[in-house]
Structures are given as C-alpha cells and as structure tokens.
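User: I've been trying to design a sequence by hand for this structure and keep getting stuck. Would you show me what you'd pick, starting by listing the structure so we're on the same page?

Assistant: Good idea, let's start from the same input. This is the structure you sent:
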C-alpha cells in the first residue's frame, strides 16, 4: 500500500509528460513564463504550468524571503476554502491561484501584493520539466 502511494506521489510531483503535469491538481497555463523572475530559459517551451502550491502571495508590508525575485500582483478574488484562503492574483495579465493560511493577515480584493513562484513545469512537445526558481538555490550557496 505504501509503495503504491509513494509511486503516485512521485507521479504527481514529478510528471514526465505534459499531460500528467496538467492533469493533476489545479493548474494555470502560462504562455510566457519569462515574466516571472529567475527561471532558467528553455528553448521551444510551448507553455508553463503553475500550481497554487508553487505560488507564495504576500502583502507589501509582510516579510518575503525572496522579495527581490517576486513579481507585482493585484488581488482579484479571495475565497475561503475551509483550511486555507485561496487568493487569485493578476500578474501582468496572468491570473494565478495561491493559498494562504488562516493565521496569516487578510488580503483584500484590489490589494497590491508580492507574488513569488517557487517552481513551474514547462512543456516541450509531450515532455514536462520541473524548473525551480534560481533564487532558492542561490540562497543556499555559501560564500
């Protein structure tokens, strides 16, 4: 039973095909992921796929570890989801979903926010590749 669960989680979190990357979970398709800071450029990308768990939305007055790599966003919708708050933000014409904890400060519709993407999937043909935001790996470098 555990082996089957581990296999399914690996399949969901590290899909090899464009179909599986877009099939599981809530996804937003992005034509041009270069609007988001610090992702490796890959040739021939057809689209990028963003899931809510990849997105961190913070108020302008909140501490954001990767603030210099965050994009400017405007809150379009805020929805209670039981154990969390779903925030829909517009980043340069692209609407993304994110989740915030119930213990975090409330965000209002129309509020300007910082939006940081931890990772995205990109598709080339029928293949999917996971790209981590380079700010995260740069943060772990020791000088």
């Amino acid at each position: 039973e555990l082996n089957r669960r581990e296999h399914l989680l690996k399949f969901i979190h590290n899909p090899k095909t464009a179909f599986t990357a877009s099939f599981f979970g809530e996804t937003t398709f992005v034509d041009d992921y270069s609007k988001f800071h610090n992702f490796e450029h890959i040739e021939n990308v057809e689209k990028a796929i963003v899931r809510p768990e990849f997105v961190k939305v913070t108020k302008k007055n909140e501490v954001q570890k990767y603030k210099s790599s965050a994009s400017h966003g405007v809150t379009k919708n805020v929805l209670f989801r039981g154990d969390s708050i779903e925030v829909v933000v517009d980043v340069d014409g692209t609407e993304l979903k994110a989740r915030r904890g119930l213990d975090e400060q409330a965000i209002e519709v129309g509020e300007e926010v910082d939006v940081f993407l931890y990772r995205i999937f990109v598709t080339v043909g029928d293949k999917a590749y996971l790209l981590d935001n380079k700010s995260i790996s740069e943060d772990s470098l020791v000088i």
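That's my pick for every position. To get oriented when you compare it with your attempt: The two ends are 44 Å apart (CA to CA). The first helix runs from residue 2 to 13.
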